[in-house]
Write a structure and sequence with these properties.
- The protein is about 60% helix and about 5% strand.
- The protein has about 300 residues and is mainly alpha-helical.
- The N and C termini lie far apart (about 60 Å).
- About 40% of the residues are buried.
């Protein structure tokens, strides 16, 4: 029997008891899970163990407030599973993208800037991990649970500490808003995610850890996610003491570079309409007149550019 053939109301009434005020919310959660199974074609009669895992995660999940938008959103996984996913796949991402740049000074600098932004974010108590990877692509990416990576190619194209803060702030928002775990669930599939967090082994007969790492690198956010990450990242970098116009400069640089050849960052972080315009407007309406904000061009040259060129 397919799970999609079972009415959501049946699962609710005959499998679990919930107070009446939760009835409609739980039914909606069951319907969403059913649709996911339709999309990935999982036959539950052949995978009873997976059904148990799915129901466990489903009914542990709930409605959480997205701190960036202030709106309630349905989260299929508790935040603890975000952390478990990030911890499991961070080493595979590093392998897939050339490993860490072998320079402790650069690694410490990237981590310092990242942690400076984390402290003013909505998740200052979440343990974030930052790494600079030895890959020539112009890219930055995040994993659930606070794992953030930036490539050599991106570092070489930035010109200041504030621009680095803009990129890291953008990725931090994707973690805080849980855009990453939602994208993984939608684009990779709940079956593989559940296998990842409930087993110490790679799902047999499905994909290797390296295969999954390649899919994670290629995760694509929505333009709505991108606009929220732009706006939230801009607010974070200002709160951390950085000039917000560095965000505008960075996005303009990426758009200019993409005119000559595709930029990896923009292929997974699609540019919303009028990106430069709404960033500039947000600065002028929310952050105009802020004094003492840093750019850090000289700091960045010494800490990153000079070291990469040696």
């Amino acid at each position: 029997m397919f799970l999609c053939a079972i009415p959501a109301e049946f699962l609710l009434v005959h499998s679990f008891y919930y107070p009446i005020e939760q009835k409609h919310f739980i039914i909606e959660k069951v319907k969403i899970i059913k649709q996911i199974f339709v999309n990935v074609g999982i036959i539950m009669s052949k995978r009873p163990g997976l059904l148990i895992s799915v129901l466990f995660f489903l009914f542990c999940a709930g409605c959480a407030t997205n701190p960036i938008t202030g709106k309630d959103e349905l989260m299929l996984f508790p935040e603890e599973q975000d952390i478990a996913l990030g911890k499991k796949y961070a080493p595979e991402i590093e392998k897939e993208m050339g490993g860490r740049i072998p320079d402790a000074g650069i690694q410490n600098y990237v981590d310092y800037i990242g942690q400076r932004i984390v402290r003013v974010s909505h998740k200052p108590d979440l343990e974030f991990h930052f790494a600079a990877l030895d890959d020539e692509s112009v890219n930055a990416l995040a994993l659930p649970g606070g794992y953030i990576f930036i490539t050599r190619g991106m570092l070489e194209n930035l010109g200041s500490e504030a621009q680095l803060a803009a990129i890291l702030g953008h990725e931090i928002v994707h973690v805080v808003a849980r855009d990453v775990s939602n994208a993984m669930s939608n684009q990779i599939g709940i079956q593989l995610l559940l296998s990842a967090v409930t087993s110490d082994k790679t799902p047999s007969g499905v994909l290797t850890a390296a295969d999954l790492a390649q899919q994670i690198v290629g995760l694509r956010y929505s333009r709505k996610d991108e606009k929220e990450a732009d706006s939230g990242g801009l607010d974070y970098m200002v709160a951390a003491g950085y000039d917000p116009y560095a965000m505008v400069e960075t996005m303009q640089m990426l758009q200019n570079r993409s005119e000559n050849r595709p930029i990896e960052f923009l292929s997974t972080h699609p540019s919303p309409e009028n990106r430069i315009g709404y960033l500039t407007q947000r600065i002028q309406t929310k952050h105009l007149g802020r004094a003492g904000l840093e750019t850090g061009k000289e700091n960045y040259r010494k800490a990153v550019l000079d070291r990469l060129s040696n």
